[in-house]
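so my prof wants the structure for this chain in the tokens format not the other one, which i didnt know existed until like an hour ago. anyway here's the sequence
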Amino acid sequence: MAKFKLDETDHQILDMLIENTRTPFTDIAKKLLISAGTVHVRVKKMEEAGIIIGSSLTLDYKKLGYAFIAYVGVFLKNTSQTKFVLERINDIPFVTVAHVTTGKFNVFCKIRARNTQHAKEIIFQLDDIEGVYRTETMISLEESINDKKRLMHSIFKEL
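here's what i got, hopefully its the right format
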């Protein structure tokens, strides 16, 4: 597949959709002084090129009672157990992200919990998975940076 070329209009469309994926194409069109049909066609082309993959909804987990965030490094007895352990981790809904990593940990997870007691229960679930040697936990005091746009703008400057 040929590399898809983005122009400034594509950048502006993506910028608005990253800010709010529910922004109507008509609103984007008005701001960019183009037709809603043009926005639709451009978004469709970016989807077909695999640049846009679905859309997401952002929840305020604090308002839902899940303000406690921790990161858990998982050490495995054998790296050959990675797939099995990831399948078990996937069964724990409070583990929201899991990465297979190099370096200190075999797997690195982000968990969301109601409080420290709940986090302890989740960590114990991780520890109890067959193949897990031990875990190491870091508590998040605050999420200081979570900006989806900074990387996108940096990439656009390179193009």
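also thought this was worth mentioning. The domain at 68-139 is CATH 3.30.70.920 (Alpha-Beta Plaits).
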